[in-house]
Amino acid sequence: MFLSAIEAQHMNASRLKHFPVSFFSMIMGMAGLTIAWQKAGQVLNLPAVFGQLLAPLTVATFVTLLLFYSLKMVRYRQAVNAELHNPVKLNFFPAISISLLLISIALLPLSEPLAHGLWLTGVILHFVITLYVMRVWIHHEHFEIHHINPAWFIPVVGNVLIPIAGSPLGYHEISWFFFSIGMVFWIVLFTIIFNRCQPWRAKRRLVDPSSREAALFSRRALRQRENKVGLRTRRPVIWEPSTEQQRACEVVA
Hints:
Elements: H1 2-17, H2 25-43, H3 49-75, H4 77-84, H5 94-107, H6 112-138, H7 153-157, H8 162-166, H9 172-196, E1 204-207, H10 212-229, E2 249-252
Antiparallel strand pairs: 1-2
């Protein structure tokens, strides 16, 4: 009985240590769904009860996740620090401030003072996190181009959400400021990510030069080259890998 209690405590500690910051992306989805149901009730005359039920559920889920992650920051600072230096997990920290902003948008029709306080907290926190993430991007020692992924949109492009509640609350200049930041970085990041994720880009893989697949590719390449110049020869094809690719060569499939 005593050993089982120790094992359970150790298991709970391990779960808390590996509690990912990316869980806050759930709040982004739930808050977005809440806002969508609220707008659907206004535009499409759908029942508003769904939006009214989703709003407190989203807030309760956010508070629960925030409590767990705050406890992780107190007990396992090294694990949190490791996430801050991870090129992928780093970009999910702004999901906390984005969640605050989305919740303020969802609560704006229900309670303007509460939405106002959450919006101000989210704006300040997101501005700080955005500056930190940009500093890491600029002074990158271990980041490479293949580390870029769509999650990089969250820190800087997430600024476009600030005017949604900021403008009705009267913060027009601040809203324009953050909106311009989000749009500028959206163009930059969209260009880089689209360049990496081109759907027409051929996949590259390693092929053994001595394999049958490599010989077939060699014959196909020679046949295509002969068709271009109008020549048809029957000389044997010799696969000659470069010195840098002695054991494997990179072939465009």
